[in-house]
Amino acid sequence: MKSNDTFTLIVTRNYGRPHTWSLPTWKVYVGSAASVAVMAALMLLGLAFLMFYPHYQQTLRDLRELERERDALRQQVLSANQEIYHAKERGVAADETAGAGAKEQEFIPASATAADVYSPPIRIGGLNTRLTRNHLEFSFQLTSADKGRGNRGGFLFTVFENQELTPPQFLISPTAAMNETGFPQFYKEGLIFPHVGDSVNIRRSIRLERPDTSFTHVTVYLFSPRGGLIAKERFQLDRSVFQQEPSADSQKPSKA
Q: CA 251 to CA 255: how far, in whole Å?
């Protein structure tokens, strides 16, 4: 190898013994060029970060603002769904009582017929509960009221409540956000249930944090895939369910 084809580094310590390192010239050139390229890339990335960082921060602020607006609109939609469904229930009661009071009659126009009154496409019934150690097992049945034409499945919540406490205590399954009345906040957090052509059995279990936990009622909510409240049923629970031994038979509650 020619003398000008290598670079030699000689280090001599104070005791006079030299240490020598030799590298081919092309390796030194390639290493230098690579180092310069890496440094240039890092400098370009730093400059790009400084240029786009304010825009990135503004985008994050806009995104947070949009998320707050989305949550507010979602809450308004769910509250409207709850109010509409309650109005429908009051309208059904007004139609059945046939002039029991003017306050109820205002929810049904004078020209409305029985066909105009809302009828949920899915009926909720057959609720059974059983206490097994620290778990409350429950099951119920979803039955189509129109041979499956009026539903495409959706999201399901089961909300247990204890009205003997002040304020009332609520426990939702699956775990999700609720408002102060126990109404689910975000429908997509619910349990997905399939299209109900005839009937579907739902079986669930929740863990009770304390052995003395008890509930007085349970409400089942059914939401459509788009978030509309399509069915709701509230049941009263028998207190003996929470006092029985793990081997006791299940208790069937009655509708409230």
A: 13
